[in-house]
Amino acid sequence: MTDRKRVVLAYSGGLDTSVAIRWLAEQKGYETVACAIDVGQAAPGELDRVRQRALDCGAVESVVVDARHEFADEFVAPAIAANALYMGKYPLVSALSRPLITRHLVAAAREHGAAAIAHGCTGKGNDQVRFEVTAMALDPELAVEAPIREWGLSREGAIRWAEERAIPIPVKADSPYSIDENLWGRTAECGILEDPWASPPEDVFERSAALDAAPDEPDELVLAFRAGLPVALDGKELDLVALIAEVDRRAGAHGVGRIDMVEDRLVGIKSREIYECPAAVTILTAHRDLEDLCLEQELAQDKRGLEGRYAQLIYNGLWYTPLKRALDAFVAESQRYVSGEVRMRLYKGQASVAGRRSDIGLYDHDLATYDAQDRFDHTQAEGFVKLWGLPTKVWARRQGAL
């Protein structure tokens, strides 16, 4: 029989989810199963400490799931193929991980006989929507608890509450940044970052060098793509997890990937967000450029028009929806011939394309050149221009007089 007093909590090891374990017990009578999902956010051994921290905070069980390859292959890969950037800037670092985490929460709830899952989101964040709407799609009968939203305690108040109960938390009142991280990037908010006029302090960043500390010589790397996905770095084939990690390291060393933006949150407010995404910025820049070489013009134009919508669906927590599934099919078809290599130059915060090539690309040198090898039939141009301009000419004769 299902235990109605057991809940599976998405546990990060941070402040909010650490205090949530005790709050769920004191206020709701729940036994908490803490579930931490490794999506590439932690150094080796760190999640073992996270697992123990959950038990120290009062969880009856603590589970860690290695989902790095699942995250890369099933969530990051489609985002690369779609060039998914919310507001044209944000590579959806946290938004991509939430449907995966929720999928594991739902599976854990079934395994442990829980009738509810829980998250540590506040009432003004986007992640509450992502967790809860995903849960509705995967198991409409499963209840969702949101202790931090229901509690309404400030971050400073939560720190005091934890200290009063000797709950082990990895943050102190004098360093109140809220951090979320995974393979695809790192996010930071709270504290001084809430002032959009203030420059982010250097101690906010961990995965990218400051420009004045970046090397004075550029680095070049070659990314090979097959059917729209990066498969090799500098001629060496790597799985997506390893490839992203290596690009992240090399690009970050040159200060690539810092994003400081005012973001339109789903809940209707604007927020100042700081992101570090060296690999994401580098790989997406390369992929977009390769598409310019390989995609037929009409397909390319329609795909560009849909990329923002695709990113918005992910941002808005609508991963498991009919429209997202339909767009996935379109994106997958568009990537059939996006194969080739892109040479990227990393220097002083910029990841720029230095060259690209493809055996199946649509660039034809003999058609594009102006030298003696030119095979373009110039005799057809006059008739083309006349026919192309005919509607404008007719309009100008009849209605275009000023």
Helix-strand blueprint:
Layout: E1 3-10, H1 15-28, E2 31-38, H2 46-56, E3 61-66, H3 68-81, H4 93-111, E4 114-118, H5 127-138, E5 143-145, H6 147-151, H7 155-164, E6 178-182, E7 185-189, E8 219-226, E9 229-233, E10 236-237, H8 240-252, E11 258-264, E12 270-276, H9 278-294, H10 297-315, H11 322-334, E13 340-347, E14 350-357, H12 365-368, H13 381-398
Parallel strand pairs: 1-2, 1-4, 2-3, 4-5
Antiparallel strand pairs: 6-7, 7-12, 8-9, 8-13, 9-10, 11-12, 13-14
- Helix percentage range: 40-55%
Report the β-strand fraction as a percent range.
15-25%
Order of strands across the biggest sheet? 3-2-1-4-5
Q: Secondary-structure element sequence?
A: EHEHEHHEHEHHEEEEEHEEHHHEEHH
Major β-sheet, in short?
A: 5 strands, parallel
Termini separation comes to: 81 Å
- The Rg value, from CA coordinates, equals 25 Å
- Shape field: elongated
Give the strand tally.
14
Question: What's the pLDDT, averaged over the residues?
Answer: 93
The number of helical elements comes to 13
- Structural class by secondary-structure content: alpha/beta
